């Protein structure tokens, strides 16, 4: 009886060991696809054409960090942000 139970247990372990690499391979493929999608998003958009010019998202982040903590109205900050982004995308 004990031999019968242990043989079933061994058969179950072997079967589980056989399916584990297949699942791991599928997970690795999903991770790889996810990384490729992330890289595409990071490199998406128009590249900067001029030496010091930035992409629009780079300029927006830079301008936001410059404007952080300013004690002005929202409309004036928006205007300054718009002008800052335009200048940084043109390379000024």
Task: Describe what you observe in this structure.
There is one protein chain. The protein is mostly helical. It folds into two domains: about 1-45; about 50-90, no CATH class. The protein has three helices and no strands. It has helices at about 1-45, 55-65, 75-90. Helix 2 (about 55-65) packs across helix 3 (about 75-90). The protein is elongated, with a radius of gyration of 28 Å.
Quickly describe the structure.
The chain is an all-alpha fold and 92 residues long. It has helices spanning 2-43, 56-67, 74-90.
Question: Beta-strand percentage?
Answer: under 5%
The stretches of 5 or more residues where confidence is low (pLDDT under 50) are: none
Number of H/I helices: 3
What is the molecular shape?
elongated
By oligomeric state, this entry counts as single chain
Number of strands: 0
**Which structural class matches the secondary elements?**
mainly alpha
- The topology string of helices and strands comes to HHH
Question: Whole-number average pLDDT?
Answer: 77
Strand count, sense and barrel status of the largest sheet are: none
The percentage helix is over 70%
Q: Please tell me the total number of domains.
A: 2
Q: How large is the radius of gyration?
A: 28 Å
Q: Ends: how far apart?
A: 84 Å
Itemize the secondary structure elements and their pairings.
Layout: H1 2-43, H2 56-67, H3 74-90
Q: Key features?
A:
mainly alpha; 2 domains; about 0% strand
